[in-house]
Amino acid sequence: MNSLITAAVLLALLGLAYQLGWSKSRRLETAGAKLHSRPSYHGYLTVVWALAPALVILLFWLLFSDRITQSYILSLLPPDVAALTGADLFSAIRRVRDIASGFGVAGETQPWENAAGQSLREFNALTFAIVTAAAAGAGALAMLWARSRIAPRFRARNEFEGVVRVLLIACSGVAILTTAGIIASLLAESIRFFSFISPIDFFFGTSWSPGFSTTGNEAHGEYGMIPLVWGTLMIAAIAMLVSLPIGLMTAVYLSQYAAPRLRDTVKPVIEILAGIPTIVYGFFALVTVGPFFSNVGALIGLDIRATSAFTAGVVMGIMIIPFISSLSDDILRQVPRAMRDGSLGLGATKSETIRQVILPAALPGIVGAFLLAVSRAIGETMIVVLAAGNSPYLRFNPFEPVSTVTVTIVKQLTGDTDFASPQSLVAFALGLTLFVMTLILNVVALQIVRRYREQYE
Amino acid sequence: MADHFAAVLNPPSDGSAERLARIRAGLKSRHAREWRFRAYGIAATAAAIAFVVILFAMIFAKGLPAFWQAKMDLDVFFDPAIVKVEPKPVQQEGQSAADYRKAVLDWERAVTLVNWNRVIEAAVRAKAPGFQIDTRQVLTVVETNERFVLRDMFVENPGLLGQTVPVRMLASANVDNWLKGTIDRSLPDAQQQLRDQARGLADQLYADGTIGMRFAWNIFVNVDSRSAPAAAGLAGAFVGSLYMMLVVILLSVPIGVMAAIYLEEFASKGRITDFIEVNINNLAAVPSIVFGVFGAAVFINWFHLPLSAPIVGGLVLTLMTLPTIIIATRASLRAVPPSLRAAALGLGASRTQMVFHHVLPVTFPGIMTATIIGVAHAIGETAPLLLIGMNAFVASVPATPFDQSAALPVQIYLWQGNENRNFFEARTSAAIIVLLALMLSLNAMAIYLRRRLERRM
């Protein structure tokens, strides 16, 4: 109800402001003055000036109303109730609020509760009226001021466009803010983690056994991340071994050999792979691929576990195929036609042209695509959560279960709302490590790809 | 190859016949190599397509049967000898809302305490008169939450007392397994999920048509359930995902488009713009789980937003989707022919007018396509949601984006981990089909829009 009234007040202010700005400038125009800006711009600008102070006041109220009301209720409580703590105090406040809202409470009410409820109701009504009136008043004053500025020479359009530009700049700042926020939050929590565990033990330790998070437990366990990084790299390597040849050859075949019609049907089919959520791949790995490998292994006398680095790596490789193939396709297409035609004209076969002219020319771009794919494989989560087996030991056999950085982040941070123990804080340190690893890969890869593009433009 | 070139550049003195012979001699192996290379390309493309086919075949083979589920048609007699409760209370005059609610709740509690299992047992026995079976075994045939369904029917309509109503009840998950053959029928008794008598009863009821495989509407209208797996559905997860989609669209489209406009149309090319650009490209490649860690640290830990709420999930996914939308919008802004800009500026439009009145409307379909693809990608994302607490078991449909909720991909994650494996493998695949259907329809919409755009331009 209250928010509806507020919205109505704001809408009324908006409509009124536009009307005032528009009609005054329009009147000037019909009176024969030559306006710098069209009347609608005067209207927009008046709206901006009218809404800005009202919104600022409402925002402040939104931020602080809860605290103000809370302290008012506390002042209403009799001393013996106010001395309560925790859940008792919370339920006392809750009862007062329920009485004030008219919903009532079950059972007998005490006289002081009724009185407190009554005064809270009056307080709520009063503060709401004051805030709404203040917002409306400030808006109206600003609106009148903005209206008073309207004159034939007044550059309303320029000022309004300035406001628009500030808005645009603020929006592009969101991207920077996100990066800064990611770095700041990860750093802050990681520093808290490193107050428990020394960075040397974390970055160079070879044993991972964090133990359980219990408050007041001084035994922290071991936090060496080498086994996790090893597992991550092993799975990423297997994924690249699967996806690079298939993805690259697919791109070569589709861009150099296939007839346009075949290409137009096959390409979207392969790109479906890119659109499938990773949780689906994880399920596929767990239910189909893992048991399949395990059976094949049993046939040829090899002990392959159903959830292993191999299973996760192969499925992740399948996931990355379209990524590699579409990036390589782009890159192959940027190789100048003259190079290709020159080679073919000298009598080289198509495959010789591709292998000895096109691929070497496209190599830097393909390396960039490869690095981007590696960064994606390192950051992939759901496939490894389901199919890698989650066993954080330093193992060199790819057919054994492993654990990765991402799996461990999920494991340490899910279901835990208490960010005080090293057991959950370690997730931030791992997240930071992952972020830095992928950041370096991305920056290098994007730089290579960019330079490659410039080379042939 | 290099020697062929050498041969061409420096013709051997002893005539061309020998040269020709050398080239001819090499031709066979060169053509064989050409053929092999081509075969690799075809094999790689075929493998990529085969992965798509296998993945979909496996999901559909497992998931489609789950849309038909064992249900039994029973005639339920609301026996007054079993359902012994007072009439439903009516709000008295002068009774407060809270007191009335308490009275109704007390009555509903009494209704809940009725032994509904006996009502169900009688209804089942009536369908198989004379079948020798214990009470407990009868109840294992019917899904456990059906007693709450009967209770809710009665709470809704207390006039049912003493009447016989046909009710379609869910058979238990174990009956579903038994009848569909997802459990081996030849297993010894100790390894079966149902006891001997219950299996016989299920077979008899299936043979006489009381139990049949009927379309599982419950997957779409029910919420998740732990105690009654056969009744578990996706309604809560679907609505949760929908809310997140809404948040993503409402936030990422305006912010992303405005940022793109600033960077492409207004910003002077300089160090700051370069920095923002590198930033955005990097953000697009940051692993999704890092966004999850960031969300846990900032939205949950610092701002104390509610755990597992769609609003938080939506915010995290917005930050993830923003770079995609910015990059795509910039690309479509760049594709607008410069003549359009020159014409607008030449006729005296300001830069802002040129962008908002002439350039932006042309890019609208492109922005729309990018948005849909970005959103489709975002709703399939699982890992960041796990970190903001969305892996909690929530058995309700969220009323607002601030309520606790599940999400489709997280529901898939939770179901694949359910202990009742042979039942939930199919359920999980069914949930995947729903998610993929949602994503594919979004993508189809994007393709349709792109086609229309291309036709118009």
Task: Describe what this molecule looks like in 3D.
The complex is a heterodimer of chains A (457) and B (457). Chain A is mostly helical and 457 residues long. Chain A has helices at 2-30, 39-76, 79-82, 86-101, 111-148, 156-194, 199-204, 226-257, 260-275, 278-299, 309-334, 337-345, 350-379, 382-387, 405-413, 422-455, and strands at 208-209, 222-223. The two termini of chain A are 61 Å apart. Chain B has 457 residues and is mainly alpha-helical. Chain B folds into 3 domains: 2-64; 69-217, no CATH class; 235-456, Orthogonal Bundle (MetI-like fold), CATH 1.10.3720.10. Chain B has helices at residues 2-9, 16-63, 97-113, 116-127, 135-141, 146-156, 173-180, 196-207, 218-221, 235-266, 271-285, 288-302, 310-334, 338-346, 351-379, 383-387, 408-416, 421-456; strands at residues 68-77, 164-170, 211-215. In chain B, strands 2-1-3 form a 3-stranded antiparallel beta sheet. Chain B is flat. The mean pLDDT of chain B is 87. Chains A and B meet through helix 6, helix 8, helix 9, helix 10 and helix 11 of A and helix 1, helix 2, helix 3, helix 10 and helix 11 of B.
